[in-house]
Amino acid sequence: MLLSTLLEGLEIESVQGDTHILIEGISHNSQNITRNGLFVAVKGTHQDGHHYLEEAIAAGATATIVEKSLQPRKGVITIKVPDSRIALAHVSDRFYGRPSQELTVIGITGTNGKTTTSYLVESILKAAGHHPGVIGTIDYRFGAQHHTARNTTPDILELQRMTREMVDAHTSHLIMEVSSHALEQHRVEGLHFDVAVFTNLTPEHLDYHGTMAHYSKAKELLFSYYISRSSKDTTYSVINYDDPCGKYLSTVTPAQVIRYGIKEGKEISLKDYRVSSEGLSALIATPYGEMNIRSPLIGSFNLSNILAAIGVAIAIQIPQEAIIQGITQLSVVPGRLERIPNQDGITILVDYAHTSDALDNVLTTLTTLPKKRLITVFGCGGDRDKTKRGPMGDIATKKSDLAIITSDNPRTEDPHAIIEQIEAGIDHSLSQKYAIRKLPDTNHLKGYLIIPERREAIRTAVSFVQPGDILLVAGKGHEDYQIIGTTYSHFSDREELQEALTLRTPRH
Asked: Has this prediction a pTM greater than 0.90?
């Protein structure tokens, strides 16, 4: 494509050279430049693309986009712009032929519930005979293609390339989990959304955003900025009206609003429901009339995710029969209260809960289910928001008969220091700390253990559980790696539990 065509409509401060040249590829990574390529120098959190201009030119870049004033390179066209990230979104959208305009695009943001809501919407669309693609925390998938997700929301260049592949593969809808990082970093700039979904807002990513106010502002961008720039004829914001942030978002979005909620839903509201170890049933008021649904998903918090999915389906005019069928057919979301099968009469669950709110929701649900004891294994990730560590320790010990505190992707932090911060939040008048070799009768446990090595923690928990117990391993969910330092090593809670079950010698 001609460089001049790629630049049409882009805010430009200066141009050095003739833009009437052919561009065969775009990259913001100097190692991925092809011959006759366009290199966009983006200043990131850890590295600045402007430092790699010479490498990019040596690799074949014939044009560069920069946001810093630099000396011109002979034979290389230089375009200076106010913001390289926005420029990257602009040129990649045009390079791949504006693919999001050819799909129905659904963006889901919020602290918790994004993944489950995306799976529910996907299942509903399939039940209606459509061919959806999904970009989210677990993977990127469409048709027969599955790619492991490196980020919840990929960078804009990869996103536009993948969206074009979806269009070419006759995908009908794109369902995206949109992270607060992606919104703030313009990773969805140039995407034309049909529907924006807000699930909730609770403390998370404060290591990046600094304050809840800044975190909230990042989420707001999907509803006030991105949806307003969509070229689609009609746009919708599907918003959790139970959440105070949701109430605010409903006043700032230019899109048509569908408000859902368990307590305060308007267009979509919960009339009645039942929760059991077998799943959910509910009577829901909708613009289509009252809807009876059944779902194999466990946990009352999933009712909110179901309401969100119904809101999306109504916005894009999916028939009621397909909505009910799609919800019923989704039996499991990987790593979200996912059962680990066993022959011992134990309910073993893996969940991605890694925030205080998510852990509280999961444990609150599990405390209502029939059981003898509830045992929880959990930890907190390193190099991430430290303020959630104490509250997670408090929640886990208060709502479990036994909590085992362990490591969860410590990254460059000392795992023992992370555990100390978790332990600082525990009310020791309610939860006793046990030494591993001095446990009381396991039928009367009420307290916590510290086992820093996650594999050992899981195996210890499996050795404790007895028929009728519930064991929850929280924090990593679908992840199949452990990050220690900067090294990724294969580690799956699901695999570790299955292995521990084969080694199990129950304690009595």
From this structure: yes
| Residues contacting 121, CB < 8 A, separation 6+ | 106, 108, 132, 175, 309, 312, 313
**Tokens found for residue 182:** 């992606």
Q: Assign a CATH topology to domain 99-329.
A: UDP-N-acetylmuramoyl-L-alanine:D-glutamate ligase (3.40.1190)
Angle, alpha carbons 43-134-199 (nearest 5°): 80
Q: Domain segments of the chain: what residues? A: 3-95, 99-329, 338-503
Per-residue tens of pLDDT for the chain, all 508 residues = 999 999 999 999 999 999 999 999 999 999 999 899 999 999 887 789 999 999 999 999 999 999 998 887 888 999 999 999 999 999 999 999 999 999 999 999 999 999 999 999 999 999 999 999 999 999 999 998 888 887 888 899 999 999 999 999 999 999 999 999 999 999 999 999 999 999 999 877 777 778 989 999 999 999 999 999 999 999 999 999 999 999 999 999 999 999 999 999 999 999 999 998 889 999 999 999 999 999 999 988 999 999 999 999 999 999 999 999 999 999 999 999 999 999 999 999 999 999 999 999 999 999 999 899 999 999 999 999 899 999 999 999 999 999 999 999 999 999 999 999 999 999 999 999 988 766 656 566 689 999 999 999 999 999 989 999 999 999 999 999 999 999 999 999 999 999 999 998 755 4
DSSP 277-315: TTEEEEEEEETTEEEEEEE---STHHHHHHHHHHHHHHH
DSSP sequence for 345-408: S-EEEEE---SHHHHHHHHHHHHHS--S-EEEEE---TTS-STTHHHHHHHHHHH-SEEEE--S
Taking the C-alpha atoms of residue 94 and residue 8, their distance in angstroms, rounded to an integer, is 9
Domain 3-95: CATH class, spelled out? alpha beta
Residue among 61, 43, 63, 62 at smallest CA distance from 51: 43
What angle is formed at CA 391 by the lines to CA 198 and CA 297, rounded to 5 degrees?
Answer: 45
Residue 412: strand, helix, or coil: coil
Task: From the options 3.90.25.10, 3.90.190.20, 3.20.20.140, 3.50.50.60, give the CATH code of 338-503.
Answer: 3.90.190.20
